[in-house]
Each structure stands twice: as structure tokens, then as C-alpha cells.
Amino acid sequence: MANRTVTRTYRAKIQNHSQVRDSLDELGFAAAKLWNVARWTAGRVWDACGQIPDDGVLKSYLKGAGRYVDLHSQSSQRVLEELDEAFTGWYGHRDNGNEKANPPGYRKHNDEHPRSTVTFKQKGFKHDAKNNRLRLSKGRNLKDHRSDFVLCEYDVIGPQGITVENIHQVRAVHEHGVWQLHIVCRVEIDVPDAPGNGVAGVDLGICNFAAVSFGDEALLYPGGALKEDDYYFAKKRAECDSSTSREARRLDRKRTDRRTHFLHTLSKTIVEECADRSVGTIVVGDLAGIRKDDETGNPTNWGTHGNLDLHGWAFDRFETMLEYKGEAVGIDVRRKDERGTSKSCSACGRTDDSQRVERGLYVCDECGLVANADTNGAENIRRSSRYIVTKQFLEPIVR
Q1: Superfamily name and number for 198-398
Q2: Pairing, β 149-156 against β 133-137
Q3: Structural contact between residues 201 and 379, judged by C-beta atoms closer than 8 angstroms
Q4: Running DSSP on this structure, what letter comes out for residue 337?
Q5: Please, are residues 381 and 201 in contact by the beta-carbon 8 Å criterion?
Q6: Residue 204 phi, psi (nearest 5)
């Protein structure tokens, strides 16, 4: 067993929300307006010389601007860093040939500015651990007519007994009409030894949210409940008077909570099943490029229902949950490109598009394998990773 320092983000409910809401609204509006000022400045420079200024240039240029001084200096810096990251992401899409990618736009809905996330770094907050309070600093411009800070009383959302210490940063996030705190901490955990040397492959999907292969057996976890929730809440939300009504916000919160519960429960179950089978490594298919076409780089059109399902597919969040839940029991979780795994036979290796005869059925004409298509993909992920690991250890011996 070894000690390891990891980063954890805890969501916290603001207990005195009615008292601090207006102050947090001011900060959220200021962050949105600073983004817009920086975006306009970057666009003006772009039109003049064909280059986009990075966050360092924008920080220096906008340091004395009114919107910059509305926030604590570190909070303002983070807004400009986010804009720079957005431009960098856009560059990446353009470099990959996606001509339909748009540069980051302005934070504005019709005539209203949204309440943007406000980040408070080390110098921007003070923590009273004994009373569960966080003092969030304002900028100079907002200190004149109100207090110099926002004092939030928080309650961590999750299992009882969580203590928040060694805070790295705090984010005030406006979700579904309510402010919440995301508290980022550095936590030291005891990492146990791996339960064994086994390898499990995980293939993520929509109809079956996850298929897990252990080599001699496989498990399927249907995603029907998640899809039913999505369709149900979309239908109920369409019946609301407006998208910002109290009922619409309530439905959004409930949908988010149910999805989060589903992902947490499923990831915990998979890790427990792997630990019971002496698995030391979980290899999960990396779906980072699933939303774009391999040849053109443009977004792939999966049809009306397919696009809706894909848009709500929280695969990256689920993989992150698997990683830190696996880490807690000594299981190493790795991501692997799953391209081609659904077309190849896990028994003989033959690749043929026609072998997937139905949505959930895989039939190999070469060796006669008949299997669930998702478990076949999970076994391919497991086998390919196992081969790479074995090869790395065997090559020095062969030489």
C-alpha cells in the first residue's frame, strides 16, 4: 500500500444562497462581460494583423479595464485563460480540416448576459474549515457599495463525513438557476495493491451503456434507463411555459441528478466486479473522436435520434469516474483508441464490415463466432491492450 496525492472536486450546496445570490450574480455577470470585452479585443487584433493575441497579451492589455477590476485579479486572469483555451481548441479543429468549426463567440443570450463560472485561486479565497465557510474575494470595483467579499456557508453534496481540506481553488458555478461551489482539493489517499494481474476490457455504447469482458466471461449494462430519462425530461420540459421557468429549472436539476447517480452507481459496480475477479487493469475504449468523421474531420451525422443520443453521451465523465474509483482499490484504468474494435472478430481477428449482421449481433464467417457485438468489442479492447503490455515485458527477454 502506498500514499498518493490526487486532485478531487467536491460539489457543495450554498446554505445561505438567498443572502449571497445577488453578490454572486454580480461576479458572474462581470466574468461574462470580461469574456466579451476580451473576445472583442481579440477580434479587433485579428482583423488588423491576422493574429489572435494569447492570454498573456490580453492580461497585460486589459489589466486596468473596468470589467477586469470587477473581479479579483486571479479570477479575471482565469477568464482570459479560458478564452485562450477556446481559441486553441478552435485552432485544433481547423488544423484537422474541420472547416465548419467556429471560433469562440460572445457570452450573450439575446439581450441577456449569462452568469459565467467564477474561479477563485489561492489568493482569492479564505477557508474556515471549522464552520464550513468560504470567503470569496471581489474585485476593487464591486467593493465600494457592498462588502469586500462573499461569505458562503457550504454543505458538501455526497456521503456524510467528507472533510474539505488543502483547497487548491474554488469555482462558483451557476447551474439551473442556482449557484453551487465546486471545491478543488488535493487529497492524500492510501492506494492499495492491485487485486490481481487480470485485464478487463470495457466498450462504451448507447443501447448497452457498457460491456465488460474478462476473457472467460462478459457483463452487459443496458443504457435504456438513461435514454428513457432523457426523452422523458425533454418532453416534460417542452411543456413548460419558458426555458427559464421555475419548473424547467427543477426538471433540469432532477435530470442532472439522476444522470449523475446512474454514472456513479455503474462505475462503482464495474470496479467492484473487476476487483472480485482479481483484475488489476481496466482498459476502456477512448471515444474522444467519436463525434467527427475520420476522413473529413467534420462532425458525423448519425441521424436525428443518433445525434440526440450522442450529444447526451457522457462518456468522458464516466471514464473519469472509472479512473478515480479504480485508483481507490488499486486498479489501473487506461484509455485506448477503440477504432476498429467493433468490426474485428475477437476469436480469429478477421475484419469485415458485414460481420455485424444486426445492431447487437456479431457473426464471423471465418471461424463461426456468434457473440453480442458490444462484448466482442470489449474483448478486442482487452486483447489488444494485453498484447501490448506482454510485448513490452517479453522483448528484452527475447533479445
Answers
A1: YqgF/RNase H-like domain (3.30.420.140)
A2: antiparallel
A3: yes
A4: E
A5: yes
A6: -95, 140
Q: Are 146 and 23 in contact (CB under 8 A)?
A: yes
β-pair partners for 185? 8, 167
Q: Show the cell assigned to 33.
A: 462581460
Q: Is the dihedral of CA 288, 294, 299, 302 positive or negative?
A: negative
Distance CA 362, CA 347 (A): 12
Q: Which residues, at least 6 apart from 88, have a Cβ–Cβ distance to it below 8 Å?
A: none
Q: How far apart (Å, rounded) are the C-alpha atoms in residues 328 and 69?
A: 42
261 neighbors 314 (Cβ within 8 angstroms): no
Instruction: Specify the amino acid at residue 268.
Output: K
For the stretch 126-152, pLDDT in tens is: 999 899 999 999 998 887 656 789 999
Contacts of 354 (CB under 8 A, 6+ apart): none
Phi, psi for residue 198 in degrees, rounded to 5: -70, 160
pTM beyond 0.70, yes or no: no
Residue with cell 464490415: 353
Cell of 72: 479579483
- Is the separation of the CB atoms in 282 and 332 below 8 Å? yes
Q: What is the pLDDT of residues 292-334, one digit of tens each?
A: 544 444 545 545 444 444 444 568 889 989 998 998 888 999 9
The domain ranges of the chain are: 2-191, 198-398
- SS3 state at 249: helix
